[in-house]
């Protein structure tokens, strides 16, 4: 399964897309983003069961 995050500006135009295969990964929220969409992309799976999904802010020191 791949995770795709698509970032949009306030007019609904795509600013950036990020696709990751890793279970855990770090990304930077683009400064001009207004909203985002998270999609799970099949990599040949017929079904998928997941129990937890989270996006957390990492504060730099």
TrEMBL record:
<dbReference type="GO" id="GO:0015031">
    <property type="term" value="P:protein transport"/>
</dbReference>
<protein>
    <submittedName>
        <fullName>Accessory Sec system protein Asp3</fullName>
    </submittedName>
</protein>
<dbReference type="InterPro" id="IPR022259">
    <property type="entry name" value="Acessory_Sec_prot_Asp3"/>
</dbReference>
<dbReference type="Pfam" id="PF15432">
    <property type="entry name" value="Sec-ASP3"/>
</dbReference>
């Amino acid at each position: 399964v791949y995770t795709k995050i698509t970032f949009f500006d306030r007019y609904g135009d795509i600013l950036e897309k990020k696709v990751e295969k890793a279970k855990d990964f770090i990304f930077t929220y683009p400064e001009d983003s207004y909203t985002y969409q998270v999609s799970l992309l099949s990599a040949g799976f017929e079904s998928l069961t997941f129990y937890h999904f989270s996006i957390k802010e990492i504060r730099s020191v």
